[in-house]
Design a protein that fits this description.
It is a single chain. This protein has 165 residues and is an alpha+beta fold. The chain is 25% helix and 41% strand. It is built from 3 helices and 9 strands; from the N terminus they run βαββαββαββββ. The strands form 2 sheets. The chain has a 5-stranded antiparallel sheet, with helices on one face. A 4-stranded antiparallel sheet has the order 3-1-8-9, with helices on one face. Bound molecules: NADP nicotinamide-adenine-dinucleotide phosphate (NAP). NADP nicotinamide-adenine-dinucleotide phosphate binds next to strand 1, strand 3 and strand 8.
């Protein structure tokens, strides 16, 4: 079994912007599990434990990726997990819909929660009393050319994501 998810890895200006917001969190004394630069990504579909990555690659091959322009927009939290949001992108939403449909057609299980695009910056965040996380999100974007199947493993020093295919 492998723990699998399909994602867009961050790069360039968008990655630098995400790292700069993390530095602001850190400067304000926020402790937690900060996503390392090499792990920064946008998840499109979470498959979880599944034994056949080849099946997933095959399903992905049937869904052409439309190059999309991503733009950061806003900062938010799910409980103690803080994330950066993205501007709405219909081309990306369409791709995610077709991708998830292809996974379902192939009998590949995935988390069916509504697509809620976010880039996780820090998990299990502990904010110092009276800390403000009113942090301006830099204007930054990137052009995404492809989605990548990732394997997720628990390493000694945190999660290790490995691209497959
Ligand atoms: P991960 O759980 O493998 O998640 C990889 C990506 O998939 C992340 O973007 C995550 O979103 C997303 N995701 C995870 N579960 C999801 C779900 N049910 N529905 C939709 N999206 C989902 O790796 P991680 O996020 O780096 O690790 C987070 C925690 O999972 C860690 O505390 C780790 O201990 C725990 N965990 C890992 C393993 C493993 O073997 N890899 C097994 C069990 C538990 P978010 O960024 O929003 O989290």
């Amino acid at each position: 079994m492998m723990r699998l998810f399909i994602a867009i890895p961050l790069d360039g200006e968008m990655l630098r912007a995400a790292l700069s917001v993390q530095r602001e969190f850190s400067r304000r004394g926020v402790r937690g599990n900060y996503t390392p630069a090499e792990n920064m990504h946008l998840t499109l579909a979470f498959i979880g434990e599944y034994p056949e990555p080849e099946d997933v690659l095959l399903a992905m091959d049937g869904v052409p990726f439309p190059p999309v322009a991503l733009k950061l927009r806003g900062l938010g939290a799910f409980g103690d997990l803080w994330w950066l949001g993205l501007e709405r992108c219909e081309a990306l939403e369409g791709y995610v819909r077709r991708l998830r449909h292809a996974l379902a057609e192939a009998g590949i299980p995935f988390d069916r929660k509504r697509f809620s695009p976010h880039i996780t910056l820090v998990r299990r965040a502990e904010l110092p009393a009276r800390a403000s996380v009113e942090i301006a999100v830099p204007e930054a974007g990137m052009r995404a050319e492809r989605a990548v199947l990732m394997r997720s493993d628990r390493g000694k020093a945190g999660m290790i994501y490995t691209p497959i295919g």
